[in-house]
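We treat protein structure as text, and this decision shapes the records that our systems exchange. Such a record has a labelled line for the sequence and another for the backbone structure tokens. The record that follows is passed on verbatim for readers who wish to inspect the format:
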Amino acid sequence: MAGITESRANYVGTKSVGVGSTRSAAVSAPTVGALPTAPQLLCAFQGRRFQDRELLRSAHALAELHQRRAQVVDAALIAEIDCRRLELIDDINDWVAQEIPQHRNGASLHTESLGAVVDRMARSWVDANQVIHIEGGRSDNTHKHWYQLAELVDGYTDLVTDVAGGRRRLPEQ
């Protein structure tokens, strides 16, 4: 497991996050307004330090569902998992609507809800972990998956910073 954590740092840390090398800082990183930071989301996906925050509990549950979905072949079970994912995405969006003020004047509209963004990050995190487990840390496919996750992390960071600063607003449900 230590090798996996070190390899994660190589890929997720390629941009602005640095999860593996600053693990304790990621856990205690401040929120952006009331929104969790990307390192906090990644820790929640992993199952660490999420119990006290509703959005992080939902993020952890999304990661667990994506892990389960990757192992299932039964179409009915996949549909059930996807239905539960949609409920969690709605839960995140409802929380955002209640907790985060949306600035209308001059704020550009983001193309997808925060719940959808968190769901995509959870899936990318699961995919990256699966490929590193199967192919190891040095494969091109591993690098591709961790780089994609790093891009999502950067996008999430930009989004929550802009939402907290009133420069961007999230779509209504």
In short: The beta strands are 108-109, 168-169. Residues 1-30 have pLDDT under 50 and may be disordered. The radius of gyration is 16 Å. The chain has seven helices and two strands.
